[in-house]
Design a protein that fits this description.
nine-stranded mixed β-sheet, Peptidase_M20_dimer, 37% helix, Alpha-Beta Plaits, alpha/beta
């Protein structure tokens, strides 16, 4: 456990530059909110464990909802479990500006992924409240449900509900690790399929969605910059690939008479690692999870289920890599005399970010004398889903050593606060320019 109940807060504030406490923004408030959310689902390794649609995610949303109400926002939860805090603009006829992210996590993840975007979006309101400022356009903070997908091996369920960008038949097939269906999990959360469908919003009511997120990479750290402009978001394809052979006694089955699914799967994993560079400089492929059956020490594995994460910022090359991986799986299965099949749990288009939006972000960074460093996002985000329906903007905050989805995940408070300053000014600039 943490050394003290305020360990994360104290570490964040340890070398904090108090000159960043200006224009109504407060580093201490931000640090204290990171601390409070970190206590929900805290693991023995000092990580976060708040999978989507669990009691831990609900508790984190409850805490954020309380902060929103204290800031004077109208708070609502929709039928997908998404939470929204609304600050009415002086011209309520104009489409709103929305900002936010998520508070769910991967198992034993970090304390900044998702939560930074939520805390940052709310800090903008706190600053406006102190100044007595009401924006021209309505401003909404979004806390999306189940972005990470830890429960169903396929995430972004909250933002998909808001945009209507999903296949309901596919969601009905989802099962979590306990065998519970998507419908049953919704019902555990006081929701249901009908309410999930009803969560869809009219995207004409949203002028722009802005997300702040940790980079989850090393580019900004290597450049020595606190934050950067995201140029586009890679579209992930998640595949479930199953190799099926024959179980047998480990001692009595000759090596030349085996159909070992794990041997075939291992050969496949090794080859997948080499494939992205044959397709694109920006493509990546990862086998991050596998299940072996019957998983006995003295039993030849009969079946191995793998989960492949395939991404690129370009649709054509991403899809070309997916097809190459399928062909490779079939080739290896034939070599080792086993069967193979696959299914897709997720396929999302890459999301470009408009040049005019990037240019306005660049102008905003210049106001703070921060060089405009532009970089793509290899990870999927709620902004990716929103970007299929509305204009989006995205800011990355520097990540220490590029570590993410780990208790070692870290972003310095000074970098977080500089990003929040940019976010606040950018939203104010959008209010003027649009």
């Amino acid at each position: 456990m943490w050394q003290t109940d305020t360990f994360l807060r104290d570490k964040l504030l340890g070398d904090y530059d108090n000159s960043l406490d200006r224009d109504g923004l407060s580093g201490r408030r931000v640090a204290e909110r990171f601390q409070e959310l970190s206590n929900v689902g805290l693991t023995e390794e000092n990580g976060s464990n708040r999978p989507g649609y669990t009691a831990e995610e609900r508790e984190a949303k409850r805490i954020v909802s309380g902060w929103m109400r204290q800031a004077g926002l109208e708070v609502k939860e929709d039928g997908a479990g998404n939470v929204f805090g609304r600050l009415e603009g002086t011209n309520s006829e104009l489409p709103a500006i929305m900002s936010g992210s998520h508070v769910d996590s991967v198992p034993n993840g970090g304390h900044f992924d998702g939560t930074l975007g939520v805390i940052a979006a709310l800090e903008v309101v706190e600053a406006w409240k102190q100044a007595g400022h009401q924006p021209k356009r309505t401003y909404e903070i979004a806390v999306f449900s189940d972005e990470e997908g830890a429960r169903f091996n396929g995430g972004l369920n909250g933002s998909e509900a808001v945009t209507g960008n999903y296949d309901l038949a596919e969601k009905r097939q989802l099962r979590d690790g306990d065998g519970l269906s998507f419908r049953e999990v919704l019902e555990q959360n006081g929701l249901d399929e009908a309410s999930y469908v009803a969560a869809r919003r009219d995207m004409k009511d949203i002028a722009l969605f802005v997300e702040v997120h940790i980079e989850q990479g090393k580019r900004l750290e290597k450049a020595g910059l606190p934050c950067g402009i995201v140029t586009g978001i890679a579209g992930p394809c998640w595949m479930e690939i199953t190799f099926t052979g024959e179980a047998g006694h480990a001692g009595n089955t000759p090596m030349n008479d085996r159909k070992d699914a794990l041997v075939a799967a291992s050969a496949f994993i090794t080859e997948v690692h080499t494939l992205p560079k044959e397709i694109s400089d920006s493509a990546v492929a990862t086998i991050g999870k596998q299940e072996v059956y019957p998983n006995g020490v003295n039993v030849i594995p009969e079946k191995v289920k793998l989960y492949a994460d395939i991404r690129d910022i370009h649709l054509e090359t991403r899809d070309a890599l997916v097809e190459k991986i399928k062909r490779t799986a079939k080739k290896i299965a034939d070599v080792y005399g086993v069967a193979v099949n696959w299914k897709e749990n997720l396929r999302v288009k890459p999301t470009p970010i408009a040049e005019k939006t990037q240019e306005l972000l660049e102008e905003t960074l210049q106001e703070f004398d921060i060089p405009a460093f532009k970089l793509p996002s290899g990870a999927g985000h709620d902004a990716m889903i929103m970007g299929n329906s509305v204009p989006i903007a995205m800011l990355f905050t520097k990540s220490k050593d590029g570590i993410s989805h780990s208790p070692k995940e870290w972003s310095d408070l000074n970098d977080c606060m500089q990003t929040i300053h940019v976010l606040k000014r950018f939203i104010e600039n959008v209010q003027i320019a649009w």
